[in-house]
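Could you help me review a protein record that somebody else here produced? Here is the record exactly as it was handed to me:
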Amino acid sequence: MQQYKKTQYKLILVLVGLPARGKTHISYKLNRYLNWIGYKSEIFSIKGAQQKDDKLDQIIDYELEIDPENQQIVEVRQKLSFQAAQQLVTFLQTEGDIALYNGLTNTKCDRQKLKSFFKEQLQLEFQVFWIESICDDPQVIVNNINESKQSRFKDKTIEQFMNHINVISQDYQTLENIENLSYIKLINIGKQVKVHMLEGYLCSKIVSFLLNLHANNRQIYLVRSCQTEYHILDKIGGDPELSAMGKQHSQQLGDYFIEELKGNKNITFFTSQMKRGIQTADIVGEKLGIIALKTKNLDEIDYGICDGLTVKEIAAKYPKQIKERKANPLEFKYPRGESFLDVIHRVEPIIYEIERSRDPVLIIAHVAVLKCLYAYYHCNQISEIPNIEIPINCVIKLVPIPYHCLESRVIIK
């Protein structure tokens, strides 16, 4: 059973912006991040409300069907937007802590109605933070339509979408200070940012995360440091050096990346400050002509008093801890050691660095750390992290794209 953090108050994040401005993409990334750091978060949208309404034709995608001249579609979209707001209220009044709303918020009137609805319906303390995505770059808009719209609406041309958007934009009203709202404006995918009336730790954290987002697709490589003598002796933790086999595998790993990266030296390259991580990264980096940034954020989980012991020794000396670990592997920590929750907190700055990078990212680290990073990109429940498989001598290649993440694995033999 996953345990979630609790907020001092309920938080509603409202997306604002014309179609094809990346609102859905932003809400997806924010929701993934908030759940990963331990909050109970969920997205409420026209699409989500439609999927829960058995009376509606599910073939028509009302989130993307934006023809403003079709009155029937306009009315259905308004109805679904209201249903999404109702579902949001129910979520926050029961199990949820943070809700993201992606409905109709294009005008001051829309936003005032939404504010009044939340105030009337939510019988608890809450805060609303508005996130507006503005884009006037035609190429970015076309890319957004191609990537996230055309795949779901193949019978519509880009010209038809653009015409519909142009009609809607005539009534669109950007967020203004006079509305007395707490908000952030992301202009042209973060090239310019405006923040107004920012309040509270959590909203500040969300703004910090949003400042690192961009729309570039790039590869992320997750690799475990290679074999050490501790692997051979079945010991956990410690800070051993690579074995002879580990050095050989590091050479093979470098050869793989020479072929994979094809001479590209614009790589964001991280490793830990542990000997096995540094040695693996040094061998790979020498072949590629690049140097890894070494950070303690990527060090292996701290096994506390069990560091350097074999699995059999731990079972003999600390049977109570073994039972506790089996009962709750996510929150368990060996005495004076770390839990997976501690590791998530420790590697969070690395997520910011990965999100910010527009170049391929290579991370050579350790199994517990890589489980946490992997879970972030695949939207795993954090309770699933201890059971994620991260094999040694394996390159995990992730390619984040709108709404999910592609993955491939290559075993280095």
The chain has a mean pLDDT of 93. The longest strand covers residues 126-134. The first helix runs from residue 23 to 36. The CA atoms of residues 107 and 173 lie 5 Å apart.
